[in-house]
Design brief:
Rossmann fold; globular
Length: about 240
């Protein structure tokens, strides 16, 4: 059965994310500027936050005037997103590796999925569902681990393999083992054109100056070796 991984890890990480990820350099000063640069004007449109975590994007989208539905596979993350935004968004526990049965066809103008899809091995189900719930010409913006970063950092033997990797994240409460899938660029792009999308833009942005101020050593590393990959695609046909 096609399942995403690291549920237990994100149950443990939820409180840390809620209290710290808003200012963490990798998120606040690298991932978010990249994702936000790809978003259209969201005022008065319907948006699905697919992998909402502790709710930063949900809150931002609400503040910009969007009607937001948010989903995450971690019950703790769902709870914290609800705590953050109250009744201003619909928030559900849902796994992107399974059909989104609570959502009707042709509902959203935009889907945002930040740093989520690399926890899912088989992308066929989520991209079929993204196509189904998006309106015609709706857009999908997502960020994932950069295949070059994972391939080099984890000393992988076969670039073309899709493989499960393990990392250890250190938080104040201790160490947390996190698992995710590394895949080649081809396997990031292929699910888009097989599921009715055309790619509008792919970026590998630099970290911001605020990142340099917070963490100069890792800033220098990111200016030479990309960590995340960002994609904007548009639905051009139903599948």
């Amino acid at each position: 059965m096609n399942k995403s991984v690291s549920l237990d890890a994100y149950q443990k990480l939820a409180d840390y994310y809620f209290h710290h990820v808003d200012e963490k350099p990798a998120n606040a000063d690298y991932e978010r500027p990249g994702t936000l640069s790809l978003l259209p004007d969201v005022e008065s449109i319907r948006v699905l936050d697919a992998g909402c975590g502790a709710g930063w994007y949900t809150q931002w989208l609400i503040e910009k005037g969007a009607a937001v539905t948010s989903i995450d596979f971690s019950p703790n993350m769902v709870k914290l997103t609800k705590q953050r935004v109250g009744q201003n968004a619909k928030v559900y526990q849902a796994n992107l590796s399974e059909p989104l049965t609570m959502i009707e066809r042709n509902t959203y103008d935009l889907i945002v999925s930040p740093l989520t899809l690399h926890y899912i091995k088989d992308w066929d189900v989520p991209f079929k569902e993204f196509n189904r719930v998006l309106r015609e010409r709706g857009r999908l913006v997502f960020s994932v681990h950069h295949p070059f970063m994972d391939y080099t950092q984890f000393n992988c033997e076969n670039y073309f393999a899709t493989e499960l990797l393990e990392d250890t994240w250190k938080i104040p409460e201790g160490e947390v083992k996190v698992h995710f899938y590394r895949r080649p660029l081809t396997e990031i792009i292929k699910p888009l054109y097989l599921n009715g999308f055309t790619i509008e833009k792919i970026i590998e942005p630099m970290p911001t100056e605020k990142y340099r101020e917070k963490s100069p050593d890792s800033y220098a590393e990111l200016t030479k070796k990309p960590q995340f990959l960002f994609v904007r695609a548009q639905k051009i046909m139903s599948v």
